[in-house]
Specification:
- By secondary structure, the protein is of the alpha/beta class.
- It has two domains: about 5-15 and about 85-200, HAD superfamily/HAD-like (Rossmann fold, 3-Layer(aba) Sandwich), CATH 3.40.50.1000; about 20-85, Putative phosphatase, domain 2 (DNA polymerase, domain 1), CATH 1.10.150.240.
- Helix content is about 50%, strand content about 15%.
- The chain contains eleven helices and seven strands.
- The strands form two sheets. Strands 5-4-1-6-7 form a five-stranded parallel β-sheet.
- β4, α7 and β5 form a beta-alpha-beta unit.
- The protein is elongated.
Length: about 210
């Protein structure tokens, strides 16, 4: 197995934890709607995926949410309720720090939307600055596991796909990355990720 030259990390459920049900509860509160209705509007339709694919601006997402829930909540209220759902995955941070200290180049490759990313950037998660480039679905207008987002990631780092390692929590995204030629593994735990990296000759002190 070849030693990778670049490491891409997924954001949600790898670097950060999150809870969509928390978003549902918070959106229900600001919109004075039933949680089931909010869940159907945001996650039971294409609304969230269209937003993450960059097909909707934040204002358009909020307009559609207001129209379908009959609420007068402002954009800021809606975005905060939808986005205040993240926490650092503390188990992974020592690994990220060790990789950086050992000189490994790392980026983020994630399905996310403008509101979520803005929240993460403003939350004081300093470790985010260790990653470059940031290949985000709403910016490149392609969602994992579609080939387009992986092609953009390869283009950003300027390497052969086989020289790029990628970790994601969803098997469908791992399979999509492998189909695009990347060396990809599914995240199950920090300890397993450490074993996956070391088995590929990625050296770091931890």
């Amino acid at each position: 197995m070849n030693v990778p030259r670049f490491l891409f990390f997924d954001l949600g459920r790898v670097l950060l934890t999150f809870d969509h049900e928390q978003a549902v509860r918070q959106l229900a509160e600001v919109s004075d709607c039933d949680a089931d209705q909010v869940r159907k509007v945001v996650f039971g339709s294409s609304l969230q995926s269209d937003y993450e694919r960059g097909q909707l601006e934040t204002s358009e997402f909020c307009d559609k949410f207001r129209a379908q829930t009959n609420t007068n909540a402002g954009d800021q209220e809606i975005c905060r309720a939808a986005s205040d759902i993240f926490a650092i995955n503390q188990s992974v941070i020592p690994l990220v720090s060790a990789l950086r200290q050992s000189g490994w180049a790392m980026g983020i490759l994630s399905n996310t939307c403008d509101a979520h990313w803005s929240f993460v950037r403003n939350a004081g998660y300093g470790f985010i600055d260790l990653f470059d480039p940031l290949v985000l679905s709403f910016n490149v207008q392609s969602l994992k596991p579609d080939a387009g987002i992986f092609e953009k990631a390869v283009e950003h780092v300027g390497l052969e796909p086989a020289q790029i390692f990628f970790v994601d929590d969803l098997q469908c995204n791992v399979l999509g990355a492998r189909a695009a030629g990347l060396d990809a593994v599914q995240f199950t735990s920090a300890s397993q990720l450490i074993r996956d990296l070391r088995s590929r000759g990625v050296r770091f002190n931890l």
